[in-house]
From TrEMBL:
This is Uncharacterized protein. The lineage of its organism: Eukaryota, Metazoa, Echinodermata, Eleutherozoa, Echinozoa. It comes from the Eukaryota. Belongs to the metallo-dependent hydrolases superfamily. TatD-type hydrolase family. Gene3D superfamilies: Metal-dependent hydrolases. InterPro entries: Metal_Hydrolase, TatD-like. It holds the Pfam family TatD_DNase. One of its GO terms (molecular function) is hydrolase activity, acting on ester bonds.
Amino acid sequence: MNFCDPTTYREPNFLSRVLALQSPVGGSGWKLALGIHPKHATTYTEEDWGTFVALLQNPLVVGMSEVGFDFSVPSQRWPDQEALFLRLLGQGTQGRVLILHLRGGAHADTSYAVHKLSRRLLTRQCSPLQRIHLHCYNSDEVQVKAWAIAFPHCYFGFTGLARHFNASQVRGLRAVAADRVVLETDSPHLPPHPGMGDNSPDFLGDVGAIVADLRGLPLADLMRQTVRNGQALYGIFG
């Protein structure tokens, strides 16, 4: 479960309410990823920060998410996103998965810019063995190779948006090594089918069908592989 809006986890009894949702299967329940989304870089408070730091110490929290850059907002806000990103990295990422939200702006070159900037900062702050999950990946083959070289334990998450990929994005999806592909629903957002209402984790197989088709694989093979990949990335084995 991913929480990147401080207004959510600052609510009273946040953890106890999350724990109440746990439905253990084979002895394992939900794990959490916690962060401050880059769009909140100009609005989060010091109280929010203190709550985040305290919750980060909970053993249920296995990832820092979603963090990174979102250049869809006015450029005047980009420096605040960089400052927040560095502050988040300063909390330490060893032992946690770093789940990156990297979104370009209106100009095509900003898509490359967010990837290059985040890699430059990460190489200064993190071990090359850092486990990274590129959330909602939609860039090209060049960026796939650059991430794989800089961080060999980088995984690429694909959502229902893959249905709408252009040729360059499809080549990027196909360039990802089989053991580095993970599936995401990003629910309640990004429904895999046009005209759907809210998305949910129930549609993970629908996302898998889109990705399997683009990679030219049987759906069952892709689902088995991506389950193994997700377990390896997050260190969760049922």
